[in-house]
Amino acid sequence: MASEGMDPRNQNLLIYVADRLLPREDAKVSVFDSSVQAGDSVWEGLRVYDGRIFKLDEHLERLEQSAKALAFAEIPDRDSIKAALFETLKANRMRDGVHIRLKLTRGEKITSNMDPRVNRSGPCLIIIPEWKPPRFTASGIRLITSATRRNTPQCLDSKIHHGNLLNNILAKIEAIAAGVDEALMLDIHGFVSETNSTNVFLVQREELLTPHADACLPGITRRVVMEIARSQGIPVVERNISLGEVYASDEMFATGTVGELTPILEVDGRVIGNGQPGPLTQKLRAGYAELTAREGDLIPF
Q1: CATH superfamily, domain at 141-292
Q2: Residue 100 needs a FRET pair 20 to 30 A away by CA distance; which of 43, 73, 80, 124 works?
Q3: Which residues of 98-112 are buried (b: 16+ CB within 10 A; e: fewer)?
């Protein structure tokens, strides 16, 4: 029986693990895998639109860069990862309305230990495709500000898209306890960083503001939205943003592969703008939809 929120089609998925496709119930890694031992992995979220994977090379480049930053001894080449992706989508007959979690772990260890020198089997590639529409609705979401701070580059560089997401999970727990959708996370200086799962943008006097990508991930959807805005003549500014500016903003929205562009209607009980998705947000959503409808790597089947 499908759990709440699960598309019934996802019960019978084939998952790619290491070098083969396995039924969902058999798709497992060893208890000695580095992802189990210490969250030692990197990952990407991909979305499929009408037979195309959007921004595939950009995501694979970030995966490679993250694995290099974590000193993975081996990194699969881009062509082999693409081949595995296409094989997985073909086996599941998926061409649209699909979100993919692409994960690369450091691999299996010969003993339980944090030392990467005991990883002797090479990296483990995991591909999880799911029938999954954008995570949040176009009608908008509500946030609270989390007491859990986003990682600083002094501790763990947010530009490494790593699999250790405990501070994000702690922030999400706060949001759940508060009865809202997501948590807004600040950096260690008290400036806005991102939500527990997405980048954020504010609109003030028809100018688009977003935090510096210091304590937040420089997201691919974030960059695409900035490019769309500039092409439409909308000024884009990256700078420190305070909570007071959030509360007084005209519009606010979140960006990410899993949710695309999501209007934010309330933060800490303060209504953003008029409490409805704003005109600039709607304009950028339309621009993003137009782009995803025509760009991406063609799935060869």
Answers
A1: D-amino Acid Aminotransferase, subunit A, domain 2 (3.20.10.10)
A2: 73
A3: bbbbbbbbbbbbeee
Under 8 Å between Cβ of 78 and 60:
yes
Cβ atoms of 184 and 200 closer than 8 Å: yes
Segment 226-237, tens digit of pLDDT: 999 999 999 999
DSSP bridge pairs for 41: 105
Q: CA-to-CA distance for 146 and 175, rounded, in angstroms?
A: 8
pLDDT tens, position by position, 266-282: 999 999 999 999 999 99
- Domain positions in the chain are 10-131, 141-292
CA angle 235, 58, 204 (to 5 degrees): 20
Contact 125, 103 (CB under 8 A): yes
pLDDT of 1 > 70? The answer is no
